[in-house]
């Protein structure tokens, strides 16, 4: 629908963009049904797309007759054989990772601060309750040290994550854009107080 | 002025929705070491790749060079092709990147097109070009940006899906829709004025 200045109305522009983004199934079809300008627009759009498809045959050119043969020859001469698969690479990566893990486990195990214990009587295989208590306290200490070293770093990293900051700035931009749109494009009668709109006696 | 030197003599491009199973069979054969299968791939897809690159470069010799490089790269990396995807879309993605790399260190497309136009003085050719200025795609080339033209070409000339178009152009699907919408609006405006 056109206004007196000849420019397309805001509603029509929104409907057309919405249809372009969401397709004909969008909820903008109600407007189109009652707007002859939009109907004409979509008809023209369809004709244009059909014309573009039809005009393709006139725009395409035949490559040189020997181009495909030349390419095939060039491929044979210059290109190495296609790599069969990425599996060997993945397999070697997996083996490397496993070896590194095993190495790390060995190093950690060697450096565990195990409390020195009194020489045991090897004649008996029983573990005394004091040995067990010492082992438990060692493990506990290790856990606490690990948590103390990892937890603050993780919190700091999460706060400094550029994605989080980007998301926050995008949210702020979206909020300001919505405010601008509401201020400029929502009709003034919808901005009246709710009581003024709902109370028929006042009007 | 962006121009196309030769008129078409009929349907050149294969059907856009070419059979995926044919491509899959040829690729499998090629990965087994059958070079003849890749020759078939080259013969099957060369016209489309060539025409797409030609619309980017607007220079026949450059388009042929880029097409050749495209197939060499495709052959080298054939094992990394995902068979669930369209093979022609994969080839077009390689072609686009190859074309961009081809000109990145030298000149941009506009400069090349200008030079190509000045190197063609024969009257017959000039007449032929003047006729082609009136075609819809030539008008599109005149009024649209390179990016808009490329999106329209992929969508309506190559008949690519929205997903493939976005993937080839390296942008999101929503961005692709918006570019296509704006390009069509410009063309419609041009048509209504003329």
Explain what you see:
The complex is a heterodimer of chains A (203) and B (194). Chain A has 203 residues and is an all-alpha fold. Among the domains of chain A are: 10-57; 130-187. Chain A is built from eight helices and no strands. Chain A has helices spanning 10-22, 29-34, 36-59, 67-78, 87-110, 129-160, 162-185, 194-198. The radius of gyration of chain A is 37 Å and the shape is flat. The model of chain A is unreliable at 193-203 (pLDDT under 50). By secondary structure, chain B is mostly helical. Chain B has two domains: 15-108, Rna Polymerase Sigma Factor, Chain: A (Orthogonal Bundle), CATH 1.10.1740.10; 120-194, Arc Repressor Mutant, subunit A. In chain B, helix 1 (20-31) crosses helix 2. The longest helix of chain B is centred in the N-terminal third of the chain and has 23 residues, at 35-57. At the A-B interface, helix 1, helix 3 and helix 4 of A face helix 2, helix 3, helix 7, helix 8 and helix 10 of B.
Write the layout of secondary structure elements.
The complex is a heterodimer of chains A (203) and B (194).
Chain A: H1 10-22, H2 29-34, H3 36-59, H4 67-78, H5 87-110, H6 129-160, H7 162-185, H8 194-198
Chain B: H1 20-31, H2 35-57, H3 60-76, H4 87-104, H5 109-118, H6 123-132, H7 136-143, H8 146-157, H9 162-169, H10 173-193
Helix pairs in contact in B: 1-2, 2-3, 2-4, 3-4, 4-9, 8-9, 8-10, 9-10
Write a short abstract of this structure.
The complex is a heterodimer of chains A (203) and B (194). By secondary structure, chain A is mostly helical.
């Amino acid at each position: 629908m056109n206004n007196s200045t000849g420019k397309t109305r805001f509603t029509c522009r929104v409907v057309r963009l919405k249809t372009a983004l969401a397709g004909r199934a969008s909820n903008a079809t109600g407007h189109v049904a009652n707007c002859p300008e939009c109907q004409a627009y979509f008809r023209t759009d369809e004709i244009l797309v059909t014309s573009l498809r039809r005009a393709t045959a006139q725009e395409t050119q035949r490559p040189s007759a020997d181009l495909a043969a030349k390419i095939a020859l060039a491929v044979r001469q210059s290109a190495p054989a296609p790599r069969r698969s990425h599996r060997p690479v993945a397999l070697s990566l997996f083996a490397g990772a496993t070896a590194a893990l095993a190495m790390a486990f060995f190093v950690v195990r060697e450096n565990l601060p195990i409390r020195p214990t009194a020489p045991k009587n090897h004649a008996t295989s029983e573990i005394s309750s004091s040995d067990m208590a010492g082992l438990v306290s060692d493990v506990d200490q290790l856990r606490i040290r690990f948590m103390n070293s990892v937890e603050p770093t993780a919190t700091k990293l999460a706060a400094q994550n550029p994605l989080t900051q980007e998301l926050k700035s995008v949210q702020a931009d979206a909020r300001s854009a919505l405010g601008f749109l509401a201020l400029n494009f929502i009709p003034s009668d919808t901005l009246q107080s709710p009581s003024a709109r709902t109370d028929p006696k006042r009007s | 002025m962006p121009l196309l030197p030769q008129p078409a003599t009929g349907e050149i491009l294969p059907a856009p929705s070419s059979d995926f199973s044919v491509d899959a069979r040829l690729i499998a054969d090629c990965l087994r070491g059958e070079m003849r299968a890749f020759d078939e791939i080259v013969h099957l897809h060369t016209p489309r790749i060539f025409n797409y690159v030609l619309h980017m470069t607007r220079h026949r010799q450059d388009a042929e060079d880029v097409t050749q490089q495209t197939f060499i790269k495709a052959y080298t990396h054939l094992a990394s092709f995902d068979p669930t995807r369209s093979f022609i879309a994969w080839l077009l993605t390689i072609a686009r990147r190859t074309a961009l790399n081809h000109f990145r260190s030298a000149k941009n497309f506009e400069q090349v097109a200008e030079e190509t136009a000045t190197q063609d003085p024969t009257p017959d050719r000039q007449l032929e070009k003047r006729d082609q200025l009136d075609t819809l795609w030539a008008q599109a080339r005149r009024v649209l940006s390179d990016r808009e033209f490329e999106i329209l070409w992929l969508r309506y000339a190559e008949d690519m899906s929205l997903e493939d178009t976005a993937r080839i152009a390296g942008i999101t699907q929503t961005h692709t829709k918006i570019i296509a919408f704006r390009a069509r609006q410009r063309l419609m405006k041009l048509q209504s004025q003329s």
